[in-house]
Amino acid sequence: MKFAAIDIGSNALRLLITEVIENGEGVKYKRRLFIRVPLRLGEDVFTIKRISEEKTYSLIKAIHAFRNLIDLYSVTEYKTCATSAFREAGNGSEVADKVFSHTGFFIDIIDGKKEAEIIYTNHIAEALDLEHSYLYVDVGGGSTQIALFSKGKIVDSDSFPVGAVRMCVDKVSEKNWDALKEFVKSITKDNDNLIAIGTGGNINRLVKLADNKDKKYIKEKELKELCEKLSGYSVEERIQKFGLNADRADVIVPAARVYLSVLKWARIDEIFVPKLGLANGIIHMLYEKHLRKKTAAV
Q: Mind listing the pLDDT tens digit for each residue in 214-225?
C-alpha cells in the first residue's frame, strides 16, 4: 500500500509518496516519489503577515500537480500539513479554504507542538540505544522544534519561531532566540552524554557537504568549520561552488547557526542526521492509523 504526505513549509512545499511493505520480517518503507517546490511562503508571511495572491495561486497549481501524481500512484491515503508560515499568516485559513475549493485537498494547519509530535512519529530515538537520552532538533524555515527523549519517551518538547527563512528576513526577535536558548539549557542541564538528532533539509545538506566518510553523523567542530566556510561566500558563489539550489543557498548558513547554538547550549559535540522529517512522520502516522483501523475491524 502507498501513502502520501504533503508538507507545506515556510521555505518549500514537499510531496512524499512512500510504499509500505509488510512481510514476515516486519515493515519496510520504500520511497517512491519525492518532489520539492521552493515556494517560500515565509517571505510573505514574516514581512507582510499574509500569503500573497501570487503565492496562493502558485500553491494551488502545485497542489493540483500533486493531486494528479497521488492519483497516478494509486495512493491509499494522504495528508497535507502546513506549518509556521500558514499558522502565522493573517489569511492562512482563507488560503486553505481557497486551496480546498480548487483542489479538494484539505490543509491541516498544525501548531508547533503537533509539528514536533509528527516529526517524532518517525520513532528514530526508539530505534536507538534506550540507555541514552536524545535531543531532537528540527530547524525549518519558520520554526525550530526541540524535544528531549529518554528511555524511548518524550520528556519535554516545544516549538520556537526561530527559523532559517525568518532569519534571512531579519524577523527573529531577541526574545524568541532567548526563549529557545533557555528551553534547551533547562531540559539538558541534568543530562550528560546526550546524543543530538538533527532533522530538516538544511542539516541533511550540510552533512552531504561535510568532508567526512560517515554521512549520518557530523561533529560540532566540522559543522562549525563548514558554516564558517559557507559564510565566506556570497549566495551566488555558494550556488556555483557547492551546487546548492538558490532557495537553499541563502538559508543554509542561518540554519547551521541554529544547530550550532543548540549543540553549544546542550553541551553536545556531535549530531546524528537520519535524513527524516515532517513528511516522513506524516507517512508513519498514516500507516499507524491504518493499522488501528485494521485491528478494530477484526
A: 678 899 999 999
DSSP 275: -
Q: What is the DSSP letter of 105?
A: P
Q: What is the pLDDT of residues 82-105, one digit of tens each?
A: 999 999 999 999 999 999 999 999
**Where on the phi/psi map is residue 35: left (φ > 0), alpha (ψ -120 to 50), or beta?**
beta
Distance CA 24, CA 20 (A): 13
Return the C-alpha cell found at 219. Answer: 561533529
The residues, ordered by sequence, that sit 6+ positions from 298 with a Cβ below 8 Å of its Cβ are none
Burial annotation 21-30 (CB, 10 A radius, 16+ → b, else e): eeeeeeeeee
Q: Whole-angstrom Cα distance, residue 258 to residue 264?
A: 10
- Pairwise CA distance, residues 241 & 190, whole Å: 42
Is the four-CA dihedral 123, 287, 97, 65 of positive or negative sign?
positive
Taking the C-alpha atoms of residue 117 and residue 229, their distance in angstroms, rounded to an integer, is 34
Grid cell 557537504 in the structure block, residue: 209
Report phi then psi at 2, rounded to 5.
-120, 145
